[in-house]
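Obj: model holo form, ligand = coenzyme A.
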Amino acid sequence: MAFGSTLAREEAFTDDVWRQRAERGASGADNVTFVAEQDGRWLGIATGLASDPDVPDDPRPALVGMFVLPEARGRGVGTALVNAVVDWARQRRATALCLWVTATNDPAIALYEKCSFRRTGESQPLAHSPAVALFRMARDLV
Ligand SMILES: CC(C)(COP(=O)(O)OP(=O)(O)OC[C@H]1O[C@@H](n2cnc3c(N)ncnc32)[C@H](O)[C@@H]1OP(=O)(O)O)[C@@H](O)C(=O)NCCC(=O)NCCS
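Output (holo structure tokens):
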């Protein structure tokens, strides 16, 4: 429920799709994915998109797909991933970075608030579960 996509949709992707996602950003492309790794094991992942798919007219980039393995939580991995996407957005000279979060996702909201994101006042239903609300947060980068 934390994500706009579903497990079934993501599991149906071929390895090629995951390779493309991992490669994005490598040569200055529009989107980037960061992986937090320890001893060869992936602990977490986060992606920066050049524009928000839900608000295509908005020039500000978006932070999406933030996930940390349950056993790796609470030791700064999420913060490090947010900071990596913030640095990427700054390098693109973006004025702000935006994201959507489920209104009931207290750990994620706390993470983003600690990382200086604030609610914009915008909200929308979660596409695959419309009874659940998403709200938007933004962090100024200037
Ligand atoms: C949200 C998530 C990414 C946080 O990752 P994390 O590595 O545990 O985050 P950090 O250790 O960097 O935590 C940073 C701050 O966030 C807040 N926070 C994180 N988890 C929290 C929790 N369970 N309860 C309350 N606050 C929490 C705290 O303020 C914490 O700072 P502190 O440790 O000094 O108190 C992780 O819980 C997760 O993957 N959740 C499932 C997927 C998800 O919800 N993704 C977000 C989609 S928008």
